[in-house]
Amino acid sequence: MAEFEVLNNEVAQILNPEQKSKWAKIVLGAEKRHMPVSPENMPAPDMIFGRLDVNKDGFLTEAEVPPLAWKKIRIADKDGDGKVTLSEYQSAFPKKLPN
Questions:
Q1: How far apart are CA 61 and CA 59, in angstroms?
Q2: Does residue 84 share a domain with residue 46?
Q3: What is the pLDDT of residues 8-23, one digit of tens each?
């Protein structure tokens, strides 16, 4: 984050107001895509599930989830049917982390 701030300050010194506005949008987009998500601002499990459920059938399967994500998500498949339901997902990945 500190590197983004330094870069932002350096670039902002040479831009006009219109360019600064465009630059700010670019930086915000980059931060959202590349910065780690903290537990405080983590999306709710049902929102994540909904984004991953590409075919909107109510299940996550290996075919629709990126391989690295599936390696983590598959542990939620408690009944071993190769599908993860929203309930299974929420049980395995609750929003609130234990203290």
A1: 6
A2: yes
A3: 788 878 888 898 888 8
C-alpha 53/C-alpha 89 separation (Å) is: 12
| Nearest Cα residue to 62 out of 54, 53, 70 | 70
**pTM for the predicted model, two decimal places:** 0.57
Same domain, yes or no, for 88 and 54?
A: yes
Q: Indicate if 55 and 31 belong to the same structural domain.
A: no
Structure tokens at 38: 């903290």
12-63 pLDDT, tens digit each: 788 888 988 888 888 777 766 666 666 666 778 888 899 899 999 999 999 9
CA atoms within 13 A on the CB side of 82: 3
CA–CA separation, 25 and 8 (whole Å): 11
